[in-house]
Design brief:
The structure is a single chain. It contains eight helices and 17 strands. The strands form four sheets. The protein has a seven-stranded mixed beta sheet, sandwiched between helices. The protein has a four-stranded antiparallel beta sheet with strand order 10-11-16-17. Strands 12-15-14-13 form a four-stranded antiparallel beta sheet.
């Protein structure tokens, strides 16, 4: 079966590899254009584009699927299109090109967490279980009928990045199985059932820690925004980046945002019990151990995060 693969970030690469390994004829890859990365803003291919180039697959770079891009997709003559975190909408004209439609691998248990940041939102919300589904792509936001589902336990220390990495590999297997079932004529897509929740793309502001919140909520948010957009707080008006914090319920109470040393541990007060900082990155400096940063503060007890 001829497959068009659409995807952009690193989490989509395992799916592309899985389809190749399963013997599908991946005739073209649709991905977003090269983007400037690093301090020098060097134009860099997406991870999917880089992998497609290694595999010798035709690459269609597009920030938007317009009439011209739709014509290029049609010229590739795919039987089905598989899409994993492409990062753009697929209009009706393009949806109609493959005879088997478009199959989307989405990293949530739809209809929970429809949108661009399902794994991040699940971690922030404190979900115990999440997963991935394959579904038929429609014009609505992640509304199509579901072909297959897998579940994944959210572990206590999981960051969104770690959880998404696991789902990218298990989901790749699910995607290949779904396309195999479609090819064999055995695939059945069932309407979504359950409560709908939305997972809009995270903004920089989503990473700001509100120290008035209880420690549990702060821990979830810090893990949910790691690695992107990253957790942060303000000190004297300057933004300080934070790696995920650890609960410290046995420690003496502190005011929300107040810092203190407990042996070698750097603690911060919250709306409940304190949390321990692990690593911090002050403005203009590299990420460092919290204890090393604290030693540079003349009177840590007077420091209060905003």
């Amino acid at each position: 079966m001829r497959v068009l693969f659409a995807g952009t970030p690193a989490v989509a690469v395992p799916s592309l590899d899985a389809l190749i390994e399963a013997g599908f004829d991946v005739v073209a890859v649709l991905t977003r254009p090269d983007a400037p990365l690093g301090r020098k803003r060097v134009l860099t291919p997406s991870p999917v584009a880089a992998r497609a180039a290694e595999l010798g697959i035709e690459i269609i770079h597009a920030a938007k699927v317009d009439a011209g891009v739709t014509d290029r997709i049609a010229a590739a003559a795919p039987d089905v299109a598989a899409i994993v975190a492409y990062g753009g909408l697929i209009p009706r004209a393009a949806l109609a090109v493959p005879r088997h439609g478009w199959v989307n691998l989405h990293f949530s248990l739809l209809p929970a967490w429809r949108g661009a940041a399902p794994v991040q939102r699940a971690v922030i919300a404190g979900d115990d279980v999440t997963g991935a589904v394959t579904f038929r792509l429609e014009e609505g936001l992640d509304t199509g009928p579901v072909f297959g589902t897998l579940t994944e336990t959210v572990h206590l220390g999981d960051t969104a990045g770690a959880l998404l990495q696991r789902l990218s590999h298990s989901g790749a297997v699910l995607l290949a199985q779904t396309l195999s079932a479609i090819d064999a004529g055995n695939a059945v897509a069932l309407p979504q059932q359950g409560e709908v929740s939305l997972a809009p793309k995270l903004s920089l502001e989503d990473g700001r820690i509100d120290w008035q919140q209880p420690a549990l909520a702060i821990g979830r948010r810090a893990r949910g925004v790691t690695p992107e957009p990253g957790a942060w707080t303000l000190l004297d008006g300057q933004r300080i980046k934070l790696e995920p914090v650890q609960p410290a319920p046995e420690s003496a109470a502190l005011r929300p945002g107040q810092l203190a040393m407990d042996g070698k541990r750097v603690l911060v007060g919250t709306g409940s019990h304190p949390v321990e900082l692990t690593r911090v990155q002050p403005a203009g400096k590299k990420m460092m151990a919290a204890a090393d940063w604290a030693r540079g503060q003349a009177t840590l007890e007077s420091v209060v995060f905003e």
